[in-house]
Amino acid sequence: MNPISAVYDMNFIRRYVKKNPEKYYNLRKNLRAARIGISYPAYVNISYSYAAAAVFVSFISLCILLQQRIFPFPELLQRYIPIYGFLIVIPLLIGYVVFKFLMFYPKFTAASRRTKIDVMLPHAAAFCYGMGKGGIPIYEIFKELAKNHHIYGEVSKEALYIVRDVELLGSDIITAIKNAARTTPSENFREFLENLVPMVEGGSNAHQYFSVKMHQYFEHAKKTQEMFLKNLELLCEVYVVAFVAVPIFLLVTLVTIGFLQTSQAPYIFQTLFIGLPVGSIAMIIIIDSISPKEDLDMKQVNNTSLKRTFFVEREIINEAEYTHKINKYKRKKQFNKFSKYIKNPGSIFYENPLRAMFIGIPLMYIPFLLPDLSLDKQLLLATVLVIIPLSIAYEFKMRRLTKMDKAIPDFLRRLAEMNEIGLTLKHAIGLVLKSDLGLLSREVRRMWLDMEWGCEMKEALIRFENRIGTPALRRAITLIVKASEVSNDTKNVLLIAANDAENTIRLRRDRFDTAFVYLATIYIAFGTFIYVCYSFSMQFMPSITALGTHAVAAANINSTMFATCGILGFFSGLITGQMAEGRLLFGLKHSVIFLIVTYVAFTILMGY
Predict the structure, then answer these.
(1) How many angstroms separate the CA atoms of 553 and 555, rounded?
(2) pLDDT digit string (tens) for 136-156?
(3) Which residue from 46, 145, 304, 356 could staple onto 5, CB 3.0 to 4.6 Å apart?
(4) Residue 56: count of CB within 10 angstroms of its CB
(5) Nearest C-alpha neighbor of 575 from the set 321, 243, 128
(6) Burial (Cβ within 10 Å: 0-12, 13-18, ≥19) of residue 261
(7) How far apart are the C-alpha atoms of 580 and 426, rounded to whole Å?
(8) CA of 125: how far to CAs of 116, 176, 341, in Å?
(9) What is the secondary structure of 559-587 as a DSSP string?
(10) What is the tens place of the pLDDT at every residue in 96-144?
C-alpha cells in the first residue's frame, strides 16, 4: 500500500475522517480485530488512493481495448451502450468496487481470524490445561502460548498482545486480558478470557477451568462440523445443477441455434469456457469460507534448544586455522545433506510436494511434440502430466503423516502408563520401543538413540518434533517439554495431549466419512455429463446430419464438449478435495481421473 499511498496521498480525506470518528466506528473495530497495524484515517486515505488509481488504470485500459477492437462482445457494446458513457461509467464502477472491497477487507480478515481462532481454541485450551496442571502461572502460560505461533496460529497472536501489554506497555495481567477480550474477533475467545479474569483475581488454580473449557470447545467444534456438513449437502446439490445441468442445457442450446443458423453460437462458447472456471472458483471459495479449517499439513519449523558448548582458549588456535576448520565443517555438512538426498531422492518431495512440479513442468511439453493431436487434446494431456507428479508426492506425504498421526495417541498413553508406575520419561520411551507403533517406531527409536548418545531429553524431543512435524505431535511435544521442565510426573500432561490428538483425529475422520457421500455424488454427476456427451456425439448429431440440414458441424460440437468436459473435470476434482478434506491439493488425484476419463471417452468411444 505504501508506494501508491505516497503518490496519491490525499491528506484532506484524512482530516475529514478524523473529524467524523463515529462514522468509522465499525472500521476501527474491524482494524483492531484483524490486527492490521494502521490507523483508521490512514486506511481510509489509502483506500481512496487505490480507488483513484483503479479509475485511472481502467480508463486507459478500456481506451486501448476499444481502439484495438479486442474487447469481448463488440456488437452488444455498440448496440446498447454509448461509447463515451461506457468509458466514464465502467472506470467509476471499478473504482467504487475497489474502494468498497478495501473498506470491507478488515471485516473479512477479522472474520477469517475468528474462524481460525475458534478452530484452534480447543487445542489452546488443552495446552493451558496441561500447563496449569503443572502449576505454571497464568502469565507464563500465555507467554509460552505466544511463542508457538507455528502451532496455535491466531490464538498465539492474541496471546502475544497480552504479553505485549504486560512487558511493553506496563499493564498488569488482568488489564491485558481484558484488553485482548475487548478487541478479539472471536466471541468464544472473548468469553474464555472474560471468565478467566475472576480466576486470576481470586488467585485460584485455573486448571479445572481450562479442563472444562477444553471439553466444551471440542463439543462445540463437533457441532460446528455437523452444521458445516449440512451446508455441504446443499452446496453439493448446487454443484449438480450449476455444473452439470446448466452445461447440458447450454450444449442443447448450442445445437439448436446452430440448426437455426443464428450468429449467437460464439456467445454460448464463451459462456461455457468462462462461466465454468469462474463458477468453480466461486464454489471453492464458498466451501473454504464455511469450512472448519484444521491445519493438517506438516510445517518444517525447526525449533532449537539450548545446548552445552565447550569453549576453546583463543591462543590454542589461530584465526586462519579456525576459518579453515569452519569452512571444512560447512562443506562436510552440505555434502552430508546432498548425500542424504542422493540416497533417498523421495525425501526432497516429502519435505515439500510442490517440488514435484520440477518433474511435471518438463513432462507437460511431451504432448506438444505429437503433431497428430489437436490443440485441445495436447492441453488436456499437458495438464495431466503436470499434476500427476505433484498429486503422487502429496498423497504419499499425507498418507504417511496420517498413519503417524493415528499412532500418536497410543504412543502418548503408553508413555503415561509407564510414567504412572514411577519411570521417568526417558526410561518410559525406552520401554515403549518394545511395542509396535507402526511408522512412528522408527522415529521414536531415533529419539531414544539421541538420548543414549548423550543428548538431553528436551533436545531429543525437539528433534523428534522437527523430523515429523504433524499438528498433533507439535502440540504434544510442546506441552511435554514445558511440563517436564517443572516436574518429572508428566502422566497428566501426556493424557491431556493424547486426548487432544484423539479428538482431532476423530473430527477429521467424521468429516471424511460424511463427505465421502458427496464425493460419490460428484463422480456420478460427472459420469452423467460424459454419457450425455456420448449420446450427443453418437446418436443425436448423426440423426440431425442425416436430415440434410445445415446444422453446426459435428466436429465443432465435439470440440466444445471435449473442452467443456476437460474444464469441468479439472475443477470438479478440486471441488472434491475442498469438500472431503478442505484442501485443494487433495483433489488433484480426482482431477487426474476425470481428465483421463474425458480423454479416453472422447478418443476411443466417440472417435474424436
Answers:
(1) 5
(2) 888 888 988 888 888 888 889
(3) 46
(4) 13
(5) 243
(6) exposed
(7) 39
(8) 14, 18, 40
(9) HHHHHHHHHHHHHHHHHHHHHHTS-TGGG
(10) 889 889 888 898 888 888 888 888 888 888 888 888 877 788 888 898 8
